[in-house]
């Protein structure tokens, strides 16, 4: 088994698609109309891995959770094989980093916010030998 996708609450399908594609370089994998108000929208990061199912918030509880799916914690971890390259590209695209890059025991990392204020880690994992 593998984790195929994570449901990610959004305010609007098109604004979220635009942000993930333009700011993070994700690909649009699927965009299927299910009804006049509901779509099956999947985006995926450039290196593959787990995709995001963009789910338009419906109702007060879901709308309140947009941008706060993990409370105030980092929710998702975007791995890179070249931190400096991707940090520079994301910064140039207007992605808001909340801190300067730092080295930790597990790799190089910096926290950024997405279009809804949800926190993510951009991380280049430390290479370990086995």
Q: Per the principal axes of the C-alpha atoms, what is the gross shape?
A: globular
Unreliable spans are none
Mean pLDDT: 96
The SS-based structural class is alpha+beta
Tell me the fraction of residues in β-strands, as a range. Answer: 35-45%
Q: State the total count of DSSP E strands.
A: 10
- The CATH topology of the largest domain: 2,3-Dihydroxybiphenyl 1,2-Dioxygenase, domain 1
Number of domains: 2
> How far apart, in Å, are the first and last alpha carbons?
24 Å
Task: Characterize the main sheet.
Answer: 5 strands, mixed
> How many H/I helices?
3
Which architecture of the largest domain would the CATH scheme give at its second level?
A: Roll
Name given to the CATH homologous superfamily of the largest domain? 2,3-Dihydroxybiphenyl 1,2-Dioxygenase, domain 1
Rounded to an integer in angstroms, the radius of gyration calculated over CA atoms is 15 Å
Order of helices and strands: EHEEEHEEHEEEE
Query: What is the name of the CATH class of the largest domain?
Result: Alpha Beta
- Portion of residues in helices? 10-25%
Could you walk me through the main structural features you see in this protein, from its secondary elements to its overall organization?
The strands form 2 sheets. Strands 6, 7, 8, 9 and 10 form a 5-stranded mixed beta sheet that branches. This protein has a 4-stranded mixed beta sheet with strand order 1-4-3-2. The chain is α+β, with helices and mostly antiparallel strands. It is globular, with a radius of gyration of 15 Å. The protein folds into 2 domains: 1-66, 2,3-Dihydroxybiphenyl 1,2-Dioxygenase, domain 1, CATH 3.10.180.10; 68-130, 2,3-Dihydroxybiphenyl 1,2-Dioxygenase, domain 1 (Roll), CATH 3.10.180. 22% of the residues lie in helices and 42% in strands.
């Amino acid at each position: 088994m593998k984790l195929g996708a994570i449901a990610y609450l959004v305010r609007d399908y098109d604004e979220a698609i635009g942000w993930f594609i333009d700011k993070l370089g994700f690909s649009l994998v699927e965009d299927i109309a299910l009804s006049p108000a509901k779509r099956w929208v999947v985006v995926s990061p450039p290196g593959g891995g787990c995709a995001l199912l963009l789910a338009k918030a419906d109702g007060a509880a879901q709308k309140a959770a947009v941008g706060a799916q993990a409370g105030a914690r980092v929710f998702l971890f975007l791995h890179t094989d070249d931190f400096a390259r991707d940090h520079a590209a994301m910064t140039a695209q207007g992605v808001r980093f909340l801190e300067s890059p730092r080295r930790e025991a597990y790799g190089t990392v910096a926290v950024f916010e997405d279009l809804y204020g949800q926190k993510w880690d951009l991380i280049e994992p430390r290479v370990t030998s086995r």
